[in-house]
């Protein structure tokens, strides 16, 4: 090539590059992950491990979504930690508890994957450096199988901490304050997304596969009431970004959504601040009394049953009561004390006075409860889990009522996490989903501790499958 020709093609090349620049030439990745909770962060890690180029976008200024709020723990049966602690459990019993909680409306294939892969999910998190060495008991479980950090510390911050470190180490970028606003189509499939940054600039990102891990819609009263009008006026435990952003995308592309009206109310939410009081506090011995000071239920009943029982009481409210032994068994309790959600007193009568309930009735109730449990008699409400006498002062009480907590419904996926088309149930090419943005796994009532396992397990599958596309 002579000098003149070389110069001409150089100028042409530069001109073309300039035109692409002005038109906003799209970025390209093998896998685009939308949402930086447990599902999205794990999807990114797995996709990168498969050799894919990956970008994570997150609409909020910080990562973690609802995952970072999780307190109680993550379920797994037959895990290495259970074995170390001498806890006997089985996959069959975890599956049975999951199906029973969901009134057997769960997608059985997805529920089986959840249970079978949970111990591997715990191992993977531990290998990343997560402390999941404490195993506790949550409502509706036949065995202690809820894994959390030593001393019963909140689990969500621990999971997000190790995932953030792992992504940093692998050089996987997370672009904050960047939201998905549309899907880019290719034939009947997806080949990327339209996104908007915090300045309002819209641009395209092309990808061979896209993973929707945007979480649920429990943070948007307008959306949860649209699907379940009975929840009008309910508090929520969710982060403000849980607004169901996948819904308009699904409607646009014709994706199937299942169980959208199935929204779990967590029975114990502190009503004045919308703060979830972990089930682990009941699992470790706490009891519930009504506004008179009377017990009225098995505190470890399934969440839907317990929420309904609290709503039947006066003001739809109850008090969660525990003693210092329970407080010391669960470091998550300190958080509630620091946030001034807890009233405390040296005697049951004094506590009753502070809570505004009947002192003689409450102290008689507690005395009776302790007598039954000291003497090993059957609990009159059939309390199904740990029952210990509450006789170690000081005594504590927190006001609780049910609040919107978890969306069982969401995008229909298959066992490869491919999003299904509504018209024919076939997979939409290039589109994957994981975590609370999906539906069916938990049926119409989720067992506590199963959603972190869900987000981790299906996030990992989504990352691998998306990378192999
Ligand atoms: C207070 C609380 C306590 C809980 N405790 C437990 C527990 O102990 N055990 C348990 O198993 N489960 C628990 N859960 C449920 C569990 O934490 C969640 O279901 C799970 O973490 C969901 O993970 P995810 O990755 O699917 O979604 P999330 O963690 O919610 O992440 C989704 C992310 O997507 C982002 N996003 C949303 N829309 C867009 C968009 N348009 N563009 C870009 N990004 C977007 C969100 O901002 C968010 O960061 C709890 C939930 C709450 C609220």
Automatic annotation (TrEMBL):
Keywords of the record: FAD, Flavoprotein, Oxidoreductase
Domain FAD-dependent oxidoreductase 2 FAD-binding span(s) in chain numbering: 30-452
Gene Ontology molecular function, alphabetical: FMN binding; oxidoreductase activity
Coiled-coil region list: none
Cofactor: FAD
Domain of life of the native organism: Bacteria
InterPro entries: FAD-dep_OxRdtase_2_FAD-bd, FAD-oxidoreductase_2, FAD/NAD-bd_sf, Flavocytochrome_c, Succ_DH/fumarate_Rdtase_cat_sf
NCBIfam families, sorted: flavo_cyto_c
PANTHER family per UniProt: FAD-DEPENDENT OXIDOREDUCTASE 2 FAD BINDING DOMAIN-CONTAINING PROTEIN, FUMARATE REDUCTASE
Family the entry assigns: Belongs to the FAD-dependent oxidoreductase 2 family. FRD/SDH subfamily.
Full protein name: Flavocytochrome c
Species in which this protein is naturally found: Marispirochaeta aestuarii
């Amino acid at each position: 090539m002579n000098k003149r020709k070389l110069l001409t093609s150089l100028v042409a090349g530069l001109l073309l590059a300039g035109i692409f620049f002005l038109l906003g030439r799209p970025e390209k990745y093998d896998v685009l992950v939308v949402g930086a909770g447990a599902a999205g962060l794990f999807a990114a890690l797995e996709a990168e491990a498969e050799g894919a180029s990956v970008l994570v976008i997150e609409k909020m200024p910080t990562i973690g979504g609802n995952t970072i709020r999780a307190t109680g723990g993550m379920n797994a049966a037959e895990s290495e930690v259970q074995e170390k602690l001498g806890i006997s459990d089985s996959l069959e019993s975890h599956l049975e508890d999951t199906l029973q909680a969901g009134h057997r409306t769960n997608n059985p294939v997805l529920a089986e994957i959840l249970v079978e892969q949970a111990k591997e999910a715990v191992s993977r998190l531990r290998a990343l450096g997560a402390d999941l060495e404490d195993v506790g008991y949550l409502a509706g479980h036949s065995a202690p199988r809820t894994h959390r950090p030593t001393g019963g510390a909140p689990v969500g911050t621990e999971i997000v901490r190790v995932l953030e470190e792992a992504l940093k180490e692998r050089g996987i970028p997370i672009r904050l304050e960047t939201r998905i606003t549309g899907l880019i189509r290719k034939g009947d499939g997806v080949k990327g997304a339209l996104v908007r940054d915090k300045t309002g600039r819209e641009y395209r990102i092309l990808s061979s596969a896209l993973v929707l891990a945007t979480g649920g819609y429990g943070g948007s009263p307008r959306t949860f009431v649209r699907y379940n009008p009975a929840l009008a006026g309910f508090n929520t435990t969710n982060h403000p970004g849980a607004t169901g952003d996948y819904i308009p995308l699904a409607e646009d592309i014709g994706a199937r959504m299942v169980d959208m009206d199935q929204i779990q109310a967590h029975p114990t939410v502190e009503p004045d601040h919308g703060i979830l009081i972990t089930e682990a506090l009941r699992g470790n011995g706490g009891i519930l009394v009504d506004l008179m000071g009377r017990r009225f239920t098995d505190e470890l009943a399934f969440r839907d049953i317990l929420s309904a029982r609290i709503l039947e009481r006066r003001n739809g409210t109850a008090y969660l009561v525990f003693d210092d032994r329970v407080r010391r068994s669960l470091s998550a309790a300190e958080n509630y004390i620091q946030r001034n959600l807890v009233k405390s007193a040296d005697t049951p009568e004094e506590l009753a006075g502070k809570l505004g309930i009947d002192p003689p009735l409450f102290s008689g109730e507690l005395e009776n409860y302790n007598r039954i449990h000291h003497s090993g008699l059957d609990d009159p409400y059939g309390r199904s889990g740990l029952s210990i006498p509450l006789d170690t002062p000081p005594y504590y009480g927190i006001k609780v009522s049910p609040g919107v907590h978890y969306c069982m419904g969401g995008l229909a996926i298959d066992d490869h996490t491919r999003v299904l088309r509504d018209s024919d149930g076939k997979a939409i090419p290039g589109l994957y989903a994981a975590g609370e943005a999906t539906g069916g796994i938990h049926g119409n009532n989720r067992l506590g501790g199963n959603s972190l396992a869900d987000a981790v397990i299906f996030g990992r599958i989504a990352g691998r499958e998306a990378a192999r596309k």
